[in-house]
Amino acid sequence: MATEEKQLRKQKKEQKPKDQRLKTERRRLIPIWLRIVIVVVLSVIALAAGLMIGYGVLGDGEPLDALKWSTWQRIIDFISGM
């Protein structure tokens, strides 16, 4: 009788991890690589918007000038003392 109880307990212990494994497995709606791409794209958009707002609204310049290379070259020259 005691051996039957031990066998039942052993079977329950063996079944439990399988049940837990099935419950924790799930299929992702959006893959991880796509999430990373989305975050990078949104970050670039936020950076561009912030540059345009900072340069255009706060700095009294044209917002689209913040995205031009000539503007950044002028800023780099000003900082480096050329």
Plain-language structure description:
The chain has 82 residues and is mainly α. The model has no long low-confidence stretch (mean pLDDT 84). The chain is built from 3 helices and no strands. The longest helix is centred in the middle third of the chain and has 27 residues, at 32-58.
Oligomer description: single chain
Global outline: rod-shaped
Percent strand equals under 5%
Termini distance? 93 Å
Helix content: over 70%
Largest sheet: none
| Succession of helices and strands | HHH
Q: Unreliable stretches, pLDDT < 50, 5 or more residues? A: none
Secondary structure tally: strands: 0
The number of helical segments is 3
Mean pLDDT: 84
Radius of gyration: 30 Å
Q: What class, by secondary structure content?
A: mainly alpha
Task: Write a short abstract of this structure.
By secondary structure, this protein is mainly α. The protein contains three helices and no strands. The mean pLDDT is about 85.
Notable traits:
82 residues, mainly alpha
Chart the SSEs and their pairings.
Blueprint: H1 2-24, H2 32-58, H3 69-80
